[in-house]
Fold DUF306 domain-containing protein.
Amino acid sequence: MLTIKGDTFPECEPAGALVLQAGEWVVEDINGGGIIDRSRVTLNFGNDGRVSGRASCNNYVGAYEVQGRNLTVTQVATTRKACAPSLNQQETRFVQSLEQASRFRLDETGALVLEGEEGASLKARLE
């Protein structure tokens, strides 16, 4: 089953990378701790194997590879703006969780969930 923006398609099982490339994903949770109010964290998976977006205060870019539901993210680099300490901490948690992600899925509400070892997780919704 596939649910995107409230529409449910019971017979559909989305193809790996196409799910990630559906648009801009806005992160709403990092490792089960939510995110700072009014901060913005995004994921954009391009069809060129690059992932990019906003990490809280800074922008980031990296490389990704998909095999089925398995995900590998490497070479993540961020800009270096001066940020509030709390945003810096959130950004560090986000980048670490992104780099640790090893699989992905859509949950029952259509949210994208990236999961990794030792409890690392990100949850995001299509904007």
Q: What stands out?
A: Helices lie at 16-20, 85-100. The mean pLDDT is 92.
